[in-house]
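Hi R.,

As promised on Friday, here is the backbone we talked about, encoded as C-alpha cells. Could you run it through your design pipeline when you get a chance and send me back a sequence?
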C-alpha cells in the first residue's frame, strides 16, 4: 500500500494570526496508506459460493469495489495533540447514472470503556434572620462505565462515507488504523473517488487543518 505523509494546511486565518499565509501546516503527524481498490467479481469471491452467486446476479446492474486505506498517527508524546481526525471519501455520480454508495464499511465503531465517578451532594441551606445555617450534607459517589467512541463510520449507504477519530480519556490518537469499505457503482462505469483528511488540534483554541488528495482513486471494470 503506497504511503503518503500528509501536510495539512490550516482552514482559516488561524484565529489571531495577522498573515494567514504564515500559519504553519500540521506536518509529520498523519500518514495515509493507500487508497487501493479491487473489483469484487464472482471469481474473486469464489471462496464464498453464496456471495459469489450474489455478485454474478448483480453483474449486469452493479459493480462492487473493495477500497482499502490506513491512517497512521505519530506516536505520543506529540504536541499539540490530535483532538480529532476526519477522513472523507467523495464518490461523484454521472448525471445519467445511479449514484454510487458505500455498501459496507469497516470498522463501523470502536470505543473505549471509561470508568467515570460522579459525586452527588445534598446540603440544604437556610437563612434565618440574616444568618446562614446548614442542615447537614449528604453525599454519595456513583461509578459507571461509559463507552467513548474512538472511531465511528459515517455515511453508510450514501455517496459520502467517512470515518471520524477522536481521542478518549483512555487513549490518544496514535498507531495504525486500517479502514475498508465496499462501494457499489453502476456496472461498467468509471467512477472517481476523492479523499479528504481533516484534523483538529488546540493551540490553544481548536484549529482545523484539511488536505484533499490531488489524484482521485479511479474505479473501473478493468481493476
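Update: got your reply. Pasting your designed sequence below so it's all in one thread:
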Amino acid at each position: 500500500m503506497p504511503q503518503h505523509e500528509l501536510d495539512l494546511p490550516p482552514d482559516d486565518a488561524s484565529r489571531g494570526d495577522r498573515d494567514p499565509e504564515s500559519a504553519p501546516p500540521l506536518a509529520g503527524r498523519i500518514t495515509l496508506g493507500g487508497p487501493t481498490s479491487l473489483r469484487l467479481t464472482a471469481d474473486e469471491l469464489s471462496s464464498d459460493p453464496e456471495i459469489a452467486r450474489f455478485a454474478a446476479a448483480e453483474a449486469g446492474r452493479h459493480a462492487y469495489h473493495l477500497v482499502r486505506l490506513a491512517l497512521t498517527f505519530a506516536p505520543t508524546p506529540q504536541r499539540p495533540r490530535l483532538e480529532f481526525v476526519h477522513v472523507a471519501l467523495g464518490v461523484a455520480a454521472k448525471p445519467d447514472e445511479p449514484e454510487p454508495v458505500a455498501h459496507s464499511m469497516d470498522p463501523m465503531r470502536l470505543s473505549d470503556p471509561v470508568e467515570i465517578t460522579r459525586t452527588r451532594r445534598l446540603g440544604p441551606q437556610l437563612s434565618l434572620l440574616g444568618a446562614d445555617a446548614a442542615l447537614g450534607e449528604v453525599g454519595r459517589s456513583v461509578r459507571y462505565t461509559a463507552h467513548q467512541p474512538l472511531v465511528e463510520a459515517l455515511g453508510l449507504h450514501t455517496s459520502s462515507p467517512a470515518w471520524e477519530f477522536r481521542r478518549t480519556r483512555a487513549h490518544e490518537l496514535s498507531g495504525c488504523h486500517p479502514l475498508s469499505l465496499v462501494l457499489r457503482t453502476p456496472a461498467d462505469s468509471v467512477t472517481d473517488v476523492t479523499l479528504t483528511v481533516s484534523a483538529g488540534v488546540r493551540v490553544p483554541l481548536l484549529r482545523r487543518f484539511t488536505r484533499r488528495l490531488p489524484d482521485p482513486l479511479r474505479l473501473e471494470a478493468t481493476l
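One thing I noticed while checking it: The chain has one helix and 14 strands.

Thanks again,
M.
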